[in-house]
Amino acid sequence: MFIDLKLEGKRVLILGGGVVGERKAKKFLGSNSKITIVSKDFTENLKNLSQKYEIQLKNTNEQSLDSLISNSDLVIAATDDENYNEKIVLNSKNKNILVSSVDNPFISDFIMPATKIIGDIIVGIGTGGKSPMMAKIIGERLKKHVTNEDILQVRLQHYARTLLKNFLSNKKDRRVILHQILNDREISQFLSKNNLKKAKHHVRKIIKLSM
C-alpha cells in the first residue's frame, strides 16, 4: 500500500550514514521534516546536504541512541549490520514508533517504494521489498509516459478545485465540473501548447457558466 505521509515538522531518524542512508535521506528532502542521521562516518554528499537542509549528523553512543529513538516519529535502520538493524527495529517497536529496516522488509512497519517525481506528479512503485532494483527500472519506464500536458493538467485541476470550493459545497457537483474541465478540448489544446494561463481563463468561464 502506497501512503503519502505528511511529514512536515516530524522527526525522522536514520541510522547509517553510508550510501544507503544517504539515499533514504534524499527521499525526505522537501518534506519539511527534521532529519537526524546517526553514524560513525558520513558520505561527502550527506555532509554537503546537512549544510543546505535541516539535517543533523550525529555520532552517538548506545544510551544517547535510545533517547534519540524515543524522541523520533519515524525511524529508518540503514546500517550495513543486519543484526544491528534488527535491534533498532525492536527498540523502535517497543516504543510504538514506526520503523523500517532497509535489509528486512518482513520486520518493518513500512517499506519505502521507489519514487519518481515528475513536476507535481509522484509515481511510487513497490515490489514488497522483493526487488528494489526492478522497482527502480519500472519507475523509469513509467516516467517516460508522463507528458508535460499531464503535469499542467494536475496544476490546472488544483487551481479549479481551489476555485470550486469557494462556490460549491457539494462534492459531487464539484467532481462533475472537474471532469468537464479534464475532458474539455479547448483546455487540452491550451495545455498542449504549454499555455496554462489561457487554460485557467477557460476554467473560470466553465465555472461561471455552471453557477
TrEMBL record:
NCBIfam families: cysG_Nterm. SUPFAM superfamilies: NAD(P)-binding Rossmann-fold domains, Siroheme synthase middle domains-like. Pathway: Porphyrin-containing compound metabolism; siroheme biosynthesis; sirohydrochlorin from precorrin-2: step 1/1. This is precorrin-2 dehydrogenase. It catalyses: precorrin-2 + NAD(+) = sirohydrochlorin + NADH + 2 H(+). Gene3D superfamilies: NAD(P)-binding Rossmann-like Domain, Siroheme synthase, domain 2. The lineage of its organism: unclassified sequences, metagenomes, ecological metagenomes. Its EC number is 1.3.1.76. It comes from marine sediment metagenome. GO terms for molecular function: ferrochelatase activity; precorrin-2 dehydrogenase activity. Pfam families: NAD_binding_7 (PF13241). It is an enzyme of class 1 (oxidoreductase). InterPro entries: Met8-like, NAD(P)-bd_dom_sf, Sirohaem_synthase_N. Signal peptide: none annotated. GO terms for biological process: siroheme biosynthetic process. Keywords: NAD, Oxidoreductase, Porphyrin biosynthesis.
